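Input for the complex:
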Amino acid sequence: MSEEHMHHPNYLKIWAMLVGLLVVSVAGAMVGIRVVTLITAFGVACVQAYLVAKNCMHIGAARRFVPYLVATALVLMLLFFSGAAPDVMKPAGVNWVKPAWQEAAVEHDVSLHEARH
Amino acid sequence: MAETLTAASSHGEHAHGEMSFWSKYVFSTDHKVVGLQYMFTGIFMGLIGGFMAYAFRMQLAFPGVEVPGYGLVSPVDYNALVTNHGTIMIFWVAMPVLVAAFGNYLIPLMVGADDMVFPRLNRLSYQVFLLSAIVLICSFFVEGGGFGGAWTAYPPLSAQSQYNLTPLGSSLWLVAVGLEFVAFLIGGINFITTAMNSRAPGMKAYDIPMIVWMIVVASIMFMASVGPLLAGAVMLFMDQNIGTAFFDPDRGGDPILWQHLFWFFGHPEVYVVLLPATGLVADIITVFSRKKLFAYRTVLYTVFATGVLSFTVWAHHQFVAGIDPRMAHVFTVTTLLISIPIAEMMFVYIATLYGGSITLTTPMLWALAFIAEFLIGGVTGVFLGASGADIYFHDTYFVLAHFHYTFFPIAIIGFYAGISFWFPKMFGKMMNETLGKIHFWGTVIPFNLIFIPLFVLGASGQHRRIYDFSHFPNLSAPWQQDLRILATSALLVMLAFQSVFLVNFVWSLWKGRKAGKNPWKSNTLEWTAESPPPHGNWSELPTVYRGPYEYGVPGRDSDYWPQNEPN
Ligand code: HEM
Ligand SMILES: [Cu+2]
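Predicted:
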């Protein structure tokens, strides 16, 4: 036990990195450019999740199959998204519409045609 | 061994003085006791589920009749009965009996361990499960009655009480299902860890009996698929109770999202219950045909392939839900692909039987019936998987007959196969063969007489979830009503024959012939322990020298070769 304890990551440093990244993601949104916002929001979130999983959840130190398991869960999440998104992310489809989405699209000045793609 | 419990009849080295009834049977951490607790709870829930089927089938065959023992089935009752019948049979019968009862009882015994890796978690798993069953049963009695929005709980029907009229029942139903998932997550951790870490010295991956592999793979699949639905259940609960609108299209939500969340879990789930059943069938047919499993590794590879593919087919339940037609093509292809490994597994089982010296004992009859009946269920799934055909078949009794031809072999036939095979180990007595065979034929013949008519009715356009067909002129031809009456009558016969099993069970417990350690001359490790095994299973843990299916090996005097015998 005591030996493992000597190898634990420097939590303070990781915490500082997480806070730094938080600043980046908030600042990114303030620039007001859509692409930048997306990158700073999702990109930074991915890095943060990786840092937490690796250091605070000790996945880096666990047996090999554990990271594989976690990776599998991520793959399943992507799979679910790719199967569900074609219907769930659309405001209208074959024989159905989502009125609330269409109103929102008008409000935010996104043409329906654009929202459909 | 920190605990000082003793198993029911053990007076051997492990007896450390008597424990009270409570700590021995109710709060036990012994994997065998937990397994039996799961089994008896599952049987009890099965009786409730069967009674519900009786009540709503009577209504369908004789609309408006006063059902003996139940009374008049109102439309609201009908919905609640059908919904809870399905929910109970899958989550409170198939899961506890096949995964948890056999998993708990058999895994430590078959891998040569004295108990599960986490015995207290194991006990917790059962307690959470019991709580979930109690919550579900309570939900029938609250104001408005039990949930009636179908076992798939599609919103908006499930989300909004002005539609389902069961505000309390539907929330309690969700809580019960959620608790049940938690119980099986805890249990699954145990199965996986025990099979990975507690195997007897010498037991390599390919020496593990099939049922252990299957339960482990099933537990992994359950873990990987249940997350989205658990999240979905929380979202639905909030839609019901605190006014969120995750699934309400008028307020920006999406009801189809629930269908995706449900079936992303729901389809893997059907394989979660299938795999343990196919595992125990493999173990039984090898014993009673005295032959090696035809292709051990092939079976394993088919299981892995099925496990992976089962995550890619879910939207075949949604072909007519308004999903993108291009996605329907994708899901048709994956659905047709997944039938390949499953078909291959069935071929391997049939090849195992070929040329064997077959004895038709009761467990063997059940195992063979599993293969025959499940094949019908699997093949009809292929029709449903073709999106074009499914536009016609969807939500008809054809679908209902399809999944009963899969679930019934799994949950009922599989259970009877397993219990008649391992009863001698669990209780130290043999079951009565004559009663067993009467029960077998009295179950399997009526089963087909129930569901073949329902295939025909489904193909004639009979929709599911209809309370009284006499309101639909197209569905009220005399021949259609006759078939409904035939199905219901066969159900009555089948239910009546279940009493033969209960009698046999109780009678064999008291009066059955003593079993000895290894009545079936089987190879696997559980048969080297006493019957029933004491707490701790063996006084000296076994060592393994070979795979589990060395039957009829040429050049040996005896036709079996236990895994623990050096030579
Ligand atoms: C492991 C054995 C199986 C089980 C336990 C099972 C179970 C089920 C259940 C419960 C449903 C109906 C759900 C509902 O609407 O309430 C269903 C529908 C369906 N099954 Fe299976 N199934 C099995 C095997 C298969 C196979 C092998 C295939 C195809 C190759 C298949 C294809 C389908 C399709 C396409 C549907 C949707 C039909 C519709 O709703 O229109 N199933 N199955
Ligand atoms: Cu499916």
